[in-house]
Amino acid sequence: MKIKFILVAVLTAFILQGCDDQLEIEQKDNITAENLYDTEAGALAGLTGAYSRAVAVYREAVINAQYPTQFTDEGFYNRKGAQDIRKNNFTAAEPMIRDIWGTYYEGVAATNTLLVGLENSTLEESLKQEFIAEGRFLRAFLYFDIQKAFGGIQGIPMPLEDTNKQLLPRTPGIDVYKQIVKDLEFAEQNLKTAAEATPGRANKSAARGLLARAYLYMASAPFNEAGAYKKSSDWSKMVIEDPYHQLNNSYEDIFNQLAMGNYETKETLFQIGFSFADQDSNQSSKLGSAFGMKIDDEGCGKGYALTYATIGLVLKYRSDPADERGFWNTYPYFNKRNNNCELSTINSQFMYPVSKWRRFLEPNNSNTSYGPHHWPVIRFADVLLMYAEAENKLTPGSSLALDAVNRVRNRANATPITTITDAAIQDERLLELAFEGQRKFDLVRWGILEQRVNQTRTQMKTLEANPNFVNEDWTSLGEPNLGPDGIPESGDEPVNREIRNNVMNASFDFYEGYNDFDPTKHYILPIPEQELGVNTNLKQTTGW
């Protein structure tokens, strides 16, 4: 099956299949709804229809990118007036919540329909098991996303093959994770290896990595499942000991490859692929535009930069100038309008847009909001840090945990650490995985979201009020000397060393989301109000 997983136009008839008893397809070669899964092409069509919902829910770069970043110690939304899940001022009636929930459950319905169809399929058995494994991987992936965003200890509705069309109550969160583990363990046994699998589709290593992540969530608050840290360590170790996987020698190159729409599978175990072929926005995403570097020139790959890095994150990076991740993730440059795609220095460390996602290398980049930028679901570096977290919980001060963290730091040329603590691992996850959709969920499972919200707001207000706090990047970097490609080299001497005070842009209210944070409910998203009206078996999340 030598295809990349991107949407296939002929498969659009299958996307909403889980919501309809009838499968409407053109009759060719006696293919019917009853025998669709008896052919490899038919099974692939059903699988691709399910995958397409993962593409659809991630395309706006909200639930996977902006929501887990905003108003944490990582980043914040920099616009006034908006009322949605990117700020802490929304309600259960917010349409964005309804749309995200609905798209996720369309994907669940499609995977369940696929699995039901494969049960009686006459496909060759080993091939059938591969399709079933991929379907169960995808269902686990979707349920993991829904559970960590909406579920908490109360959980979420969890339809399976035999209950796919029923209106169900919430399944307790720990039982949702146990089903996720069950699906992923089956997938791990039956999927191809990362070296063998079609890039962009599920593979054995991706299942192992998500198993490590699932057990880490089970081990953390509010579940505190006995034995889960050991399981997380074991599954992480299986990935780490696989000689196929390794860290990319260049941190920057990981994200260049994603921007170009490539599949680099040695470090990136699983990614959501997007395409902008024929400028089709249905197959593309806003990663790099809404969530990425600020680019004002329309012809240079427009970047709206709706999210800024917190000053706390910027200062953490600058405390170790050797750490290459700091210059990449909190870049002190932006593109001015009518500036021929050349870059200028941002004058305030309070206003650094997320720069991990850059549109310079996107094929066919344009002034549209959408592009082909791929999204990394799980990376080898994340597996190393999960292993470190689990090992340090099992054996505080673990040398294995220390070695795993320093392996990640060494790749970035960051100064190695000499002692390992939970706090050091938490900081390392921030530095390595910044803006990859992990932070809010990490802070929730560590039970410190409220603490970090308050600390970040206090730090921002204190530094903003300090007239002696200057932009150190400006004094050390200044305006860059640009190469022929319009991108500054990190070793350039600055043209201008004029000192500028840091300022907050008066047109934004930087504190709305921090001030509106309510610890009784903002650890989790509510069940959409519209869903409660349809499914009377559901009860709203406590606090909402």
From TrEMBL:
Organism: Mariniflexile ostreae
Occurrences of domain SusD-like N-terminal (ranges): 63-216
Database matches in SUPFAM superfamilies: TPR-like
Keyword rRNA-binding applies: no
Subcellular location, record wording: Cell outer membrane
Protein known as: RagB/SusD family nutrient uptake outer membrane protein
InterPro entries per the UniProt record, alphabetical: SusD-like_N, SusD_RagB_dom, TPR-like_helical_dom_sf
Lineage: Bacteria, Pseudomonadati, Bacteroidota, Flavobacteriia, Flavobacteriales
One Pfam family here: SusD_RagB
